[in-house]
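User: Thanks for the earlier help. One more: Rhodanese domain-containing protein. Can you show the sequence and predicted structure together?

Assistant: Of course, both are below.
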Amino acid sequence: MQKPAAQDVFAIAIEVQHLVEGKGFRPLPLSDAEVQLTAHSRGTLARHMLSLGDVLAMFPRAVSLWPHEGILMVSTPGSPWLGPFKDPPPAHGQVHPRAPTETQGLQGILRGKAVDMIERLVVLPTLQACLREIALLLVQAPDKTKLVSELGSLAGPETRAFLKTSKLRATQLLRCFANDFQIEDRGPASLVTYLHPVVLPVFESSKQGEAPACALLALEPDGPSFELARLLKLAADVTTPYPTAKGIFAQDLEVLLQTGSCVLIDCRTEAERLVSILPDAVALDSRIAVDIQAVGTVVTYCCIGCRSAKLCEELPCSLNRLYLIGGVAAWAHQSGSFGSVTRRVNCWTWELAQFFPSQGYDLDAGSCSSLPRLELCDEPEASLSRASELRLQRLQNIAWEVRLRYFPAILCFEVDDVLRSFRNEDAANYLLIDCRTDPERDVSTIRWTGLPVMPQAEFMAHFPVLVRSPLVFITFCTIGGRSGNFAQKLLQDIADKGIPVHPDLQIRSMSGGIAAWLHRGGQLVDFSGGPSRRVHPWVHAFADLFPVEGLELVLADTRSVPNDARPFIDCTGFLMR
């Protein structure tokens, strides 16, 4: 009898590992794991006359196998012990201790007194992190609204630990920040809505009726534009390396300029300043350092905030140093005027054109598709690359959460593995199945020389013939959710209907989808087959998971959220874990 491929039996062990993780890391009877295996895995065991216990014993680092009262149990090695007795068995391995999250100060707060102390507690990093995580969960939710009870299950362990040790309920805490969170009671339940388009860097209590010092722009009835919301998220990413720099929003700067009590410094290059400059701004040069010593407040600005935040940290600490969050792009969104009568703006590099207002401004050197990269310095590429690295980390976290929640048994290819396979083998041995919608494919799809890419509908039309071929099938979509569900349905249909297939049939999903493909340098083609740098992100919530450099996103500002996207959008609430 032919031995099973090592990757096939390892895949079964990983499937069981995911089953345990999906049960909250509680140990699972081996018999229950056997019942929950996919039809493909059960078929592999049957064809090679293997027991599940034999397979798991081969991979002790992936799955622990141990007896309890005559029943074999499985668990994930080193995971928190949630078994039926106090100490884990030796086969489970050493349980890694959890990092402490409680402080003596919080533990000493009497029940019901935390609300009265909120003005003092607001400076705690743990409270600020708690509010930022809750805000992030709401920003990623449809209409930025969730049940308060949902937040408890979605929030990370640090947030739950803070609420527990400070003896605060989530509703009590959020009511203390009424300028940021709106609570609406619905019978026994409460709804919370986040009132800003992006997560605030710092929250200040509104318990005494004072407006937060760093409040974001007031939302218009129709909400912020897609470009503005994306810009503020990008601004947060590119200024991450400068944590001590303090920002000011465009509408607040406009008020400050009217008082005449600040110096406004333009950190951009001469080429950018020649196109347009903010009112009364001065260029950054060696003479400025002396002049600003006598001024109380100095505000720096650039295109989107990265250069000005860096300068803000380098200025003398004796100054009140601020930088314009979102730079001239945010100023343009607020319909701010420029020093000269002009509507022309230099957007530093062509990728940033899509973050400026889509109407009312003439971006220097033409439209986004034709604007050349400005050969000023290597900083645009470096700044955008830093932002893309953060987005890739978020994408990988979300892709893993989507897989674990909706199709834990489906084998997934990482994009690095896909590209390595294409380089080392004939790409014609693979078939990519595009599980996205027609509007998405009309913009662009994946490109690799010699690699066939087929829409999902076309694949299904030839499905009975294709699955008998030796091709390796890789499904993909935006971030991997739809493609994983499709792969799971295919394998289930094959098992339920007894469809004849190739003995070594492989159907896998591309983890992270086309977004991960682009992060790893993958290429695109448009509808006609020509090279493209445009891509459709499907929904607004996924737009900021794509790389920034070398790409133009295509999505209507008013596009509604498809129902099949909502389960995957919910997974973005795990970004901060």
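User: Great, one quick takeaway?

Assistant: The chain has four domains: 6-92, 104-194, 226-377, 391-574.
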